[in-house]
Design a protein that fits this description.
The structure is a single chain. The protein is α/β, with parallel strands linked by helices. The protein contains eleven helices and seven strands. Strands 3-2-1-4-5-7-6 form a seven-stranded mixed sheet, with helices on both faces. The two termini are about 20 Å apart.
Length: about 280
């Protein structure tokens, strides 16, 4: 399969570590011919939405995020209508009212489309565009200070829905390995996991899910990367330029690229501003 590296849609949510500004570098190194495309840490999906291919497989551990992808694919017009209601009612009080759904368990009685509209609304109006949950899996990001937040982009949501349907994308929710374990020689896997922390005196940003993604998970991911390499799968991975990651992927240093990115969405100020990242390839 020849993939077309051109924009069909843009991410419909903000996401910490999103790849929009690094797209020129990332797209430059994606093979022109692949069999199947996998992205098991989809997040905002900047890379995914910037290519055109048939039958891509995407995944994330975040249930509410993946529900939103499913709703954008299957019920985009009702989603747009609900987002317009949220946009018209946006206020600090309204934000906390919707945020409280997972504290009162009323979220369990909401439809998938209602949950997706809430998720996107909170994402667009919450502080710094963060997604963070506490130990009870309750969304706990405070209201942001935006004068005119862009809550509903009708054109982009429809374009995203069209691509998800036309490409016949498979959308999964679970552990990343389950999403890529069937990858074969000639397939391409792009891995964009939660990053290793920039400093050793603080924990990595683990609010993305309650499980976190610490050193042991980074080691496991390196082992999976080696497994993909041994199977002849094209694999590319983004991560922080820190000793832990450089040491783990030492054998790939000759095909590793250093890129710079400005990070404004982060749980800690030391992760904002211009930082160096690694683009690790096995080809």
């Amino acid at each position: 399969m020849v993939i077309e590296k051109s924009n069909s849609a843009e991410p419909f949510v903000k996401w910490a570590g999103g790849k929009r500004q690094l797209l020129p570098e990332i797209m430059k190194y994606i093979p022109d011919k692949i069999n199947n495309y996998y992205e098991p840490f989809i997040g905002g999906g900047a890379v995914f939405f910037n290519i055109k291919c048939n039958h891509p497989i995407i995944n994330d551990f975040n249930r509410e995020l993946i529900n939103s992808y499913m709703v954008v694919k299957n019920d985009v017009e009702n989603l747009i209508n609900l987002l317009k209601i949220h946009e018209n009612n946006n206020s600090k009080e309204y934000y906390y009212k919707l945020r409280s759904w997972d504290r009162t368990n009323s979220i369990e009685n909401k439809s998938n489309t209602e949950r997706a509209a809430r998720f996107i609304y909170l994402n667009k109006t919450g502080f710094n565009g963060l997604f963070r949950v506490n130990s009870q899996e309750q969304f706990n990001v405070p209201y942001g200070r935006y004068k005119h937040p862009s809550i509903v982009n009708v054109e982009n949501l429809r374009k995203a829905s069209l691509y998800l349907n036309n490409s016949e994308a498979t959308i999964l929710n679970g552990d990343y390995y389950n999403a890529i374990k069937k990858a074969k020689k000639g397939d391409f896997v792009y891995l964009d996991p939660p990053y290793a922390p920039l400093t050793q005196d603080r924990e990595s940003f683990v609010g993305y899910t309650i499980n976190g993604f610490g050193k042991d998970q980074q080691i496991r991911l390196r082992n999976v990367f080696d497994e993909l390499t041994n199977k002849g799968v094209y694999a590319m991975l983004s991560n922080s330029k820190v000793p832990l990651i450089e040491n783990l992927y030492e054998k790939y240093k000759n095909t590793t690229k250093i890129v710079s990115a400005k990070r404004n969405i982060n749980s800690n100020t030391s992760g904002r501003g211009e930082v160096q990242e690694l683009l690790i390839k096995n080809y």
